[in-house]
Design goal:
By secondary structure, this protein is an alpha+beta fold. The chain has a single domain (4-36, 48-169), classed as NTF2-like, domain 1 (Nuclear Transport Factor 2, Chain: A, Roll), CATH 3.10.450.100. It has helices at residues 25-28, 55-67, 76-83, 87-93, 96-102, 106-109; strands at 11-15, 18-22, 116-119, 123-125, 128-136, 142-151, 161-169. The strands form two sheets. Strands 3, 4, 5, 6 and 7 form a five-stranded antiparallel sheet that branches. It has a two-stranded antiparallel sheet with strand order 1-2.
Amino acid sequence: MNTIVDFCHKNYVRLKGKSVTVLYLAAIFALANSNIGYSQNEFVPELQPSPAYQPEEVVGIQMRALANNDKPFSNAGIEITFRFASPKNKQSTGPIERFTGLFSHPAYRSMLNHSKLEIGEAEIRDNQARVPVKIETNDGKSLIYLFELSQQSAAPYLNCWMTDGVTPIDISNSDTPVVL
């Protein structure tokens, strides 16, 4: 199977005035609806960053937690997602109360309690990874996000993949259709 690299740099869309690479997503979603670690409806409070998790698994943990955000308590999913945010990410988005507020923004609110999840194949270069995600909201809208992760080089997260940022990808303004 081809990797994400084979599909990058072919199409562009406008996102807030900047050109952003859009990925041909047909081959990328090879891991679609994969069962990474636990079921979509199961809350696993002990989940913590671990060197055992690959980038797609980290994204899967975060997205499944957000899909069940208020189980077993309010914003439990956001709390798990914050655990897997890199120290650099936490510096700009933390503490947890501030991070929780980010999900009131329309670009990220749709990640909460989504009904369907597809996780694409990671593009890994050295200690950096990019993982595309497609979700379907409860009202049937499809949205795409690009997770950027880095493998940590210091304790207590040595060799753990953690999320540096998440970018919503707006494919609605593209002149070239993106095949999903």
